[in-house]
Amino acid sequence: MICFASIVPHSPLLIPNINRDNLIKNKKTIEALNNLADDLAKIKPEILVMISSHGPILEDAFSLNLSPQYSGEFKTFGDLTNKIELDGNMELNYKIKEFFETDSPDIPLIMVTEPNLDYSFSVPLYYFTKKYKNFSLVPIGSSKLDIQKHFDFGKKLKEELILNNKKIGLVVSANFCYCSEESGEKNVFLGKKFDQNLIKLIQNEQIGQFLNLDQKLVKKFQEISLPAILILLGILKDLKYKTEILSYEIPFGSGQAVINFNFNK
Question: What is the pTM of this model?
Answer without folding.
Answer: 0.96
